[in-house]
Recover the amino acids of this structure.
């Protein structure tokens, strides 16, 4: 993907906001509990290496990523903190993980059996550090029965030159909801597994952002802190109260590329789903659904000069049109997410209009949009 550095559409990332969110989260932890910064999917669209650097400066104890490539990218950029991949990696790639001291989750004996010969093929490899994944109700990855977990532990003990147990974890399906019934069932199951372990591993962890914010008593000795680091409330609107303020880090800005006046009946964009009611000033913004500014955002608005301007006509792949309150010069700033005058548009607003969650809006922003740091940390 070619990044549009010569185009004025940009994602602005406020490093100080991320630093503050991390410092607040770390300040709430019990002594000895580590925060692993979840920076999967290009740090939820905020930029992998940039956020990795801010997290290290804030005192994070490690990183979580989704896929092995993201972990390798961190090692290639000389990040030395512990890294945990959250998804199951291909057993054929286990040697890449071991060679780069990258920990991976294990949820079946079959995976260990498949990875074993790959690791045995190179006797110089360090041991592969694994976190036992427990499926206590998320239904995604992990052991679903105690006997399966115990069989995996026995297998690892029998192949202690290749594998080392570094952690035990689970993931909650409803930590961001007001009703805690299902959450409590998952906690109870996790404690059953934990009680059955002969030795507690180095890391015992269950908390995503929502759990760390609203169920901190469960934390264990590590949290996997993601969306709240970027200043977003994991629950959306469900639980507005947070123990510390969350500062949103991401803004999305562009500039008017073209401005014209149209007249009653004149059509705008594919399918002519919009016609001017009278004399109207129309601005064209150089961003579209190829940038992650979704086609279904027709009818939503952006900010120009502190005023909301409706998106009129269909959003195209690379451009969309807005109705301006008066003539503005090409080059005038357009705020798609962020503050303009005393008006604000949040990722949550965009998510609400497009019937999704802010996580999806943030990580749909394409690589074509350059990421630019603002308020950089020292
Ligand atoms: C993505 C992810 C997290 C982080 O979740 P947030 O809601 O962004 O804090 C934590 N744990 C696992 C297993 C994940 O996949």
């Amino acid at each position: 993907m070619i990044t549009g550095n010569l185009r004025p559409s940009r994602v602005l990332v406020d490093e100080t906001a991320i630093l503050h969110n991390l410092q607040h989260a770390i300040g709430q932890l019990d002594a000895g509990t580590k925060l692993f910064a979840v920076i999967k999917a290009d740090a939820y669209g905020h930029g992998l290496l940039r956020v990795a650097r801010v997290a290290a400066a804030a005192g994070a104890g490690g990183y979580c990523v989704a896929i092995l490539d993201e972990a390798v990218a961190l090692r290639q950029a000389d990040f030395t903190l512990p890294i945990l991949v959250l998804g199951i990696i291909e057993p054929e790639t286990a040697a890449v993980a071991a060679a780069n001291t990258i920990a991976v989750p294990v949820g079946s004996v079959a995976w260990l059996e498949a990875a074993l010969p790959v690791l045995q093929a190179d006797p110089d490899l360090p041991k592969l550090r694994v976190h036992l994944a427990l499926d206590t109700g998320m239904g995604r990855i992990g052991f679903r029965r105690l006997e399966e977990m115990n069989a995996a532990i026995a297998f690892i003990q029998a192949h202690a030159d290749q594998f080392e147990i570094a952690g035990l974890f689970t993931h909650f399906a409803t930590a961001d909801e007001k009703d805690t019934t299902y959450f409590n069932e998952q906690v109870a199951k996790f404690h059953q597994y934990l009680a059955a372990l002969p030795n507690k591993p180095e890391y015992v962890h269950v908390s995503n952002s929502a759990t760390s914010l609203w169920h901190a008593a469960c934390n264990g000795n590590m949290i996997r802190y993601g969306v709240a680091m970027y200043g977003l409330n994991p629950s959306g609107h469900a639980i507005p109260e947070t123990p510390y303020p969350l500062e949103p880090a991401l803004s999305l800005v562009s500039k008017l590329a073209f401005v014209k006046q149209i007249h009653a009946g004149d059509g705008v964009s594919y399918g002519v789903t919009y016609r001017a009611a009278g004399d109207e000033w129309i601005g064209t913004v150089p961003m579209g659904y190829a940038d992650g500014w979704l086609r279904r955002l027709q009818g939503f608005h952006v900010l120009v000069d502190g005023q909301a301007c409706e998106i009129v006509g269909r959003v195209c792949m690379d451009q969309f049109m807005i109705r301006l309150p008066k003539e503005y010069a090409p080059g005038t700033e357009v705020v798609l997410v962020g503050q303009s005058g005393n008006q604000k548009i949040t990722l949550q607003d965009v998510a609400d209009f497009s019937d999704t969650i802010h996580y999806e809006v943030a990580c749909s922003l394409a690589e074509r949009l350059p990421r630019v740091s603002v308020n950089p940390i020292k």
